Amino acid sequence: MSNIVIIGSISMDLVMVTNRIAEEGETVFGESFFMVPGGKGANQAVAVGRLSSPKDHISVLGAVGEDSFGPILLENLKANHLHVNHVGTVPSSSGIAQITLFNQDNRIIYCPGANGLVTTSNWSEEWQVIAEADLVILQNEIPHQENMAIVRYCHQKGIKVLYNPAPARETDSEMIPFVDFVTPNQHECQALFPNQELAETLRNYPNKLIVTLGKKGVTYFDGQEVQVIPAIKTEAKDTTGAGDTFNGAFGLALTKQLSITEALKFAILASHLSVQKFGAQGGMPTIDEMKGHPEYVKRWDFE
Ligand code: RIB
């Protein structure tokens, strides 16, 4: 049984698909619009929830707003096998991500709303929930000082932390000594370790720094060599949330005692499946969908 706590943003994604990006002062026609649950915290939690078994215990800590989105976002988490007893409803709007899908890629403007009001200062039972976790997963869409309070607590208690420094913030380097895994993409890695070659940076953080390379896969230093695990080739429909699927799947696989390499391969397959459908959570696979894929490896058949 895995006990994972995901702490982070829970947002509504307002997605516009367009053939043209508006210039300053210009209005253009969009192709289509959809509104779907998102937020990096919620996405990573849903990725874990869909891949987990009924014996696992997966909790989300965070906040939604006192608006019409709040109850929808909560119901969505529950529908994905997640415990939400410690998701607060706060006097604010819910987090919103305005996403433009253009040319097979996304551009996102994120307004934190309730996510920006997540505070550890009023926590009590929440610390107990964290204390019982095998793994805590964090990203950068709640305030940095709250992330710091959480990682300090986890470090003191010996609880493993997977930290996805997305979107990049100037303060990210403060988090690194307190966490077990850091999973930036190339751009975030550059922001974290400016003026350094990727191979050199990787060598400084063996089995800890995992850099996602988009279509090229993922790379890390195993203590002996820099490893590159290739992505599975595909024509992506929507890459929004691919990184979140990757992080959630990687985290779950680690708690199932898979080696880092195996856990990364598991996560790569999950994110490969996730980009086949629209929406950050739309294509996130269930464990049965993973098992139905030819790249699924039988030895991943964890309980
Ligand atoms: O990682 C993708 C997510 O980031 C989207 O769902 C959106 O909420 C943005 O913040």
From TrEMBL:
InterPro entries: Carboh/pur_kinase_PfkB_CS (IPR002173), PfkB_dom (IPR011611), Ribo/fructo_kinase (IPR002139), Ribokinase (IPR011877), Ribokinase-like (IPR029056). One of its GO terms (molecular function) is ATP binding. Substrate binds at S11, M12, D13, G39, K40, G41, A42, N43, E141, D244. Its main location: cytoplasm. Keywords: ATP-binding, Carbohydrate metabolism, Cytoplasm, Kinase, Magnesium, Metal-binding, Nucleotide-binding, Potassium, Transferase. The active site is at D244 (proton acceptor). Its cofactor is Mg(2+). Pathway: Carbohydrate metabolism; D-ribose degradation; D-ribose 5-phosphate from beta-D-ribopyranose: step 2/2. It catalyses: D-ribose + ATP = D-ribose 5-phosphate + ADP + H(+). It is found in: Cytoplasm. It is an enzyme of class 2 (transferase). One of its GO terms (biological process) is D-ribose catabolic process. ATP binds at N185, T212, L213, G214, K215, K216, G217, G243, D244. Belongs to the carbohydrate kinase PfkB family. Ribokinase subfamily. Belongs to the carbohydrate kinase pfkB family. Homodimer. This is Ribokinase. It comes from Streptococcus pseudoporcinus LQ 940-04.
